[in-house]
Amino acid sequence: MKQMKATKISKVLIALDYDPTAEKVAELGCSLAKSIDAEVFLLHVIVDDSYYSSLEYVPVIGPVGFSNIGMNYIKDSNELKNATQHFLDKTKEHLGDKKIKTIVKEGDFADSIIKTATELHVDVIVMGSHSRRWLEKIILGSVTEKVLSQTKIPLYIIPTKKHN
After folding, report:
1. Looking at the 3D structure of the chain, how many domains does it have?
2. Which segments of 12-159 does DSSP mark as H helices, in order?
3. Which of 9, 42, 83, 138 is least crowded, fewest Cβ atoms below 10 Å from its Cβ?
4. Is position 80 within any domain?
């Protein structure tokens, strides 16, 4: 019987959005990475500026204690990038690991996650999976589902649905 060779997981990419559940995703992803002594990358993908200033988008950014850094007052893409970097820096600080690297990308959520993971040669992508209403899921699609169907890199998917 041929014995399977174990693959060393050395890089973990944690994709974060501005959902209140980002804290849970960051903590569990970082815990996974630390348990296997892997390098950690935090990623946030900026879509277009109008997405963040729309009335439908209500940010609660990251870990409790630094939520809502004024996304409604962002005037241009440079301010948005700075706010996003601040979010990632605060998340890194919350996780207590100065070795964590942060990355801000622009573009389609799923495409940017896959491209970044491929460029960095990560071994695992960590993402949260938000529960959406069925109609939203059909119309908007799911970033997690798109990444899952388009990458060969293993995913660690953290369910973030709130249970009542």
Report:
1. 1
2. 22-35, 49-53, 77-95, 109-120, 134-140, 143-150
3. 138
4. yes
Report the pLDDT value the prediction gives residue 74, as an integer from 0 to 100: 60
| Residue range of the domain that includes 144 | 11-159
What 8-state DSSP symbol labels residue 125?
E
* 155 sits in which H/E element: strand 155-159
Rounded to 5 degrees, φ, ψ at 124 are -145, 140
How confident is the model at residue 2, as a pLDDT? 75
Residue 2 located in a structural domain: no
Predicted confidence at residue 66, as pLDDT, reads: 43
* Gap between the terminal Cα atoms of the chain: 49
For residue 77, the domain's CATH number is 3.40.50.620
User: Pick from 30, 90, 97: which is nearest to 60 by CA?
Assistant: 90
User: What is the spatial distance between Cα 149 and Cα 145, in angstroms, rounded to a whole number?
Assistant: 6
- Residue 56 above 60 pLDDT? no
Residue 58 has pLDDT above 50, yes or no: no
In a domain, 164, yes or no: no
